[in-house]
Amino acid sequence: MKRVRLTVAYDGTNYHGWQIQPNGITIESELNRCLTDLLREPVEVIGASRTDSGVHALGNVAVFDTVHQMPAEKFAYALNQRLPEDIRILRSEEVPADWHPRHVESRKTYEYRICRGQFPIPTKRLYSYFTYARLDVGRMRQAAHFLEGEHDFRSFCQTGAQVESTVRTVYSLQIEEQDTDLVIRVCGNGFLYNMVRILAGTLLEVGQGRRLPESMPQILAARDRTKAGPTAPARGLTLVRYEFTDCGKERDEGSSQEIPQRKAASQESVEKYNSQAGITTGQEQQPGRNNSQAGTTAGQE
Prior knowledge:
- There is one protein chain.
- Helices cover about 25% and strands about 30% of the residues.
- By secondary structure, it is α+β, with helices and mostly antiparallel strands.
- The protein has two domains: about 1-105, Alpha-Beta Plaits; about 105-240, Alpha-Beta Plaits.
- Strands 1, 2, 3, 4, 5, 6, 7, 8, 9, 10 and 11 form an eleven-stranded mixed sheet that branches.
- Helix 3 crosses helix 4.
- The longest helix has 18 residues, at about 260-275.
- The chain is globular and about 60 Å long.
């Protein structure tokens, strides 16, 4: 028996999120289906981040166990011949039998993309949130500064989420302008249910002048979901990068070819945070399903 780790990229538009749902096709169910078909044995993957319906990923992580003799690095090639075009395995490799993606120290980086303009751009409609409202980026950056560090983010967690603690550490929260797009990039040690989308919705209200940047500490202190802004639509959110330490090495899961500028900025932020905090790290073909009525999964972002 061996454990294989997969780095998974996907367009979440046509799926009911990552986690298996009774009412539709999910990323997890497609991986299980293809692995079971390939190996001729029942397979169930364990995912690192259970993204919601409509959320995308460039570097999510999953593991599965198998007795098959196929070399671990070959699974990426074999699965990509069977998976729908909107799901791809970027890397496959063997890991220790007890390695669990949710039980190791990790950093996740999400990006929320906002398309600004007089009219929406059709080619961006599935991967960004459109607004014609003018946004004060300077005010948004001021607000973001208050949200960096270790805080109780209960106000930024969807009501009803069952977690032992709502304390999380945000290493960096950046607002970057890319032509007409505005990208909110957040790196942290973990995120609560809908946390990134609520952060984005709150920062949008700050940019529109509906909230003061200085109100962020009060929102955090309230520990009340009603005090924060709305949950921004899922389509603008992408899990860009997953970093974790295992076997004495710092590992980075994400797409180096598709988004080099995003990865560089994220790494820069983490290194800056580590330097300030005095942290030392280890050594360094099937068509997609169209589920337009997809519901929301009960996992994390």
